[in-house]
Amino acid sequence: MGLQTKPQTPSFFTDFSAVYTLALCLLIGSGALASHAGADNLNEVNIGVLAFRGDTKTMKMWSPTANYLTDSIPGYVFNIVPLDNDTVADAVAGKTVDFVLSNPASYASLESTHGISRIVTLRNRRLGGAYTRFGALIFSRADRGDIKTLQDLAGKKFIAVHPDAFGGWWMALKTFRDHGIDPKEDFKQIIFNGFPQDNIVLAVRDGLADAGTVRTDIIERMAQEGKINLKDFHILNPQHTPGFPFAHSTELYPEWAFATTKHTPEELAQRVAIALLSLPGDHPIPQAANSAGWTVPLDYQPVHELMKDLKVGPYKNLGKFSLRDVIKKYAIWIIFDILLITGMAIVTFWVYQLNNKLKHSKDSLEHSKESLENEIIVRKRAEEAEHRQAERIRALYEVSAKPGLSFDEQIDETLKLGCRLFGLEIGRVCQVVPAKNENRIVNVIAPQGSTLRKAQVLRLSHTMCGLTFGQDAPLVLQNIANTEYATHPGYLATKLGAYIGTPIWVNNKKFGTINFASFQPNKDLQESDRDLLGLMAQWVSVALERKQAEQELQLAKDDAEIANRAKSAFLARMSHELRTPLNAIIGYGEIVLDDLPEHEDAIRSDVIKICTAGKNLMGLINTVLDLSKIEAGKMPVKIDEFDVTDLANEVIDTIHPMAKRNHNLLKLNVSGDIPAMTSDRIKLRQVLLNLLSNACKFTHDGVISLEVNSLITHNQTWINMTVSDTGIGISIEDADTLFNEFTQVEAAQSPDITGTGLGLSISRKFCRLLGGDIELKSELNKGSSFTVKVPQHYQGNSQPQTDNELKAVNQ
Predict the structure, then answer these.
(1) DSSP track, 558-595
(2) Confidence band, pLDDT 50/70/90 cuts, at residue 633
(3) pTM confidence score
């Protein structure tokens, strides 16, 4: 072979470049081979568990899960390693554990400092239910009248679990901060009592502390065990979260996370996630851990935000920066860089010395280079396959967590994703009824022009779903015509080319299938697609269970509304039927009184009692009739134009004798020029008489006033009529239920004070019927103030026009 002559570079630089390239290739190759060898020997898998109940209890709870993973994933042996808060970070940093099961705060800290990643979230079993979120409860004794709100804790003794406890202190601390409370400055003393949290509850009950905090479900469990009575405690800052039954005072945060460390292979992490998600919640294995299995990983960003706000955990030095911190944090990398530069200098010198020798090995080096490149290509393809599977699972997680969608829309989005990931045209979720040979389509994604549609019922024996439903594992067929199912009626009826499907379980019963198909064969379908399809089936089953629960809740609501309307109609009918004989009794009693001789005092007294009792009963029946008419939507509104000042003077004149009876001073104050109203005068008069009557009954030797003014907001004129008194007042607890039917305040439970408990309820309903409302302000033992707010002109609607209007009026 001849060589062409070309310009030559200096020998030193040519030889140096060749040798330097060889050194780098050898370094890369040796590192890759070392990594590969380590992976081949990996068969022991350690799961680090935060052992807050002790090592023995932890091993008893979680060893069944480790054994289950060993049986489910061939080639690996899973071990439980109990850890505490002081050793879990060292175990992750030292790579002595491959997975971590920890509480939300510990997980968020490890995620921030060591890069662990959640793969599933624990479904915690609590008092017969399964929950993926929890919060904290702030409470005091119910008989502590001086502690009703968070602000009342100023100067009080407070008890919690530990300064670094997430549910036992941090959640409550964030809530205090959000309400402008600094426990260190505002509380008299903070006591950290440690575990168990039951002792916190008992300490508050026994008066050792004024208030305390524990994680949710503690007091309900203690009450169920007979240790405490829930009525003995008052919840501070109560929150109401739909679907969460336990009392709580803070936001809710995700339960424990099962996470993978950075050095754990993605393929192993995926298989562990699939195995855990496939474990039924009622299986003995999760029951041993007092759980209901696992669900897709929740968002733990709220935990990070809490720790950032409080500057605890990995964020305790948030915002602080110094040269010492940089050196401390990056000391290893600084040393590594120095050593690397030094090593490179040594290698450069060594390469220069060996330059002449390596020149003679150039051909051998080129051959080695080609071999190394081929190996890199093979490994790159394997990594791309793993990365592709990870991206597919991540895409499924994103769809499952997509907000603002109905259950049907969520399932449709999952089917669209499946069609795209599997490269197929049709995606379906089907309900199978073998006894009727029915295959009903619940959700479907199909190309334009397809005859498939929702709620369509097909013959089960003539669909591939019949095959899938009868199996316990996914069915994957790249080309049905080349398989044993080529003569199956389902294939003959549909002529599908490719198919993949698996059964779906809903509420522990086999419900149907999720399947994807195409009229053309698809060679890209792989056995690895089984795992992805299994995850889809698991998520769709959860969505169907929630959909069924929502439908059952709506049916119960509809039944309750029907029963309420029937009750109202019954009361209206019975009240009307009762008034006829009662009028007769009152009429005959009055006739007897007129005909009695003057000397029949004894008989006259009895007849007067009969008439009085009849009139009282007639008033009660009329009140019940008004209430039933309102609830039945049949209360008429009679619109008149009238002067508000005349109405106020009229009710003051009417109520004056009653006010005088308890030695009360009655006042009327009409502000400015009040415009005439166009509304139901009779109903407004009844509302004012009810409020003034209550003020007279519950005030002795005091002052009762009626103030009238007007206010214009949002181009609407409002009439405000305020009835104030200096009577017994109303507590915060009674104020919450005061406007309920047949309800009286506790202070009014006296034989000297009569009433049905319907007056305030009907008064509020009348105000809302006229487009307004009633506002209450009261302080126990100091008096009350009821403000009637109604529009000047009745608009024909039964509710205030907008919430903003009423807020403006209330200000």
Answers:
(1) HHHHHHHHHHHHHHHHHHHHHHHHHHHHHHHHHHHHHH
(2) low
(3) 0.40
